[in-house]
Amino acid sequence: MNLLTYNFDLICHLVRRDFSLRYKRSALGVLWSLMQPLAQLIVLVFLFGRVVPLNIEAYPVFVFSALLPWTWFSTCLSSAGSLFAGNRDLVRRPNFIPANLVIVNVLSNLLTYLLALPILFVMLALYDRAMTLTLFFLPLLILIQGILIAGLGLIIAILNVFYRDVQYIMAVVLMLLFYLTPVFYQPKIVGESYRNLYILNPIAVLIESYRAIFFYGTAPEWGALLLVGIACIVVCGFSYLIYSLLLHEVIDTI
Q1: Which domain holds residue 190?
Q2: pLDDT, tens only, 142-200
Q3: Lowest CB count within 10 Å: 26, 151, 159, 251, which one?
Q4: Domains in the chain: how many in total?
Q5: Under 8 Å CB-to-CB from 189, ≥6 apart: which residues?
Q6: What is the C-alpha separation between 82 and 188, in angstroms, rounded?
Q7: C-alpha to C-alpha distance for 212 and 109, rounded to whole angstroms
């Protein structure tokens, strides 16, 4: 029990430290965490709202409701490669659990997501999108996405210790995945023959689930969400198995 309490307190401390150091000595401080999704929102709204209009009602809210969870996902995975390699002293420290660094990364970036939610709620009100009881599904979606990010992040952190190309590959993969995920468009505009591919993309299903509870005020599609939940648990379990097998090699290599 003491070990669990110690790990919990340690993770909380590391999350606070990571979040505070990220914006230390900057003029805007934590407001910088909101700049990326807001800048992306402005570009996407201008491009697909005016230059190449997709004719989607309340388009800024439509995009922002999906952009926030996508930013959480992409930021965590893009930084996962340096978690072990960039924290050698912590990883080598006796009794320290290196996997905690992945959890800290997930939670620290989750704080940014939660800080941006009030902006989304204001936008929903401005566009007369009613907030319904479906918002109670939000913790479930966050939990499923957190498990997915932790599983993928752990694999990336391990592989990048042995193959430093992994972090650069992930940057390319995330760029391509952004366009294969319905962040700024509706899946129904995709051809019928390609639509099933979205069911195989866990983050696409999660993005649509977030949009359902925020933008449409409806419950997520439970069948697809259940499959994603099972897949996330499998990915997380597999990544932890790989972590357990390779931990000693990871410590020796870094």
Answers
A1: 2-253
A2: 999 999 999 999 999 999 999 989 989 999 999 999 998 999 998 887 767 676 777 78
A3: 26
A4: 1
A5: 54
A6: 37
A7: 22
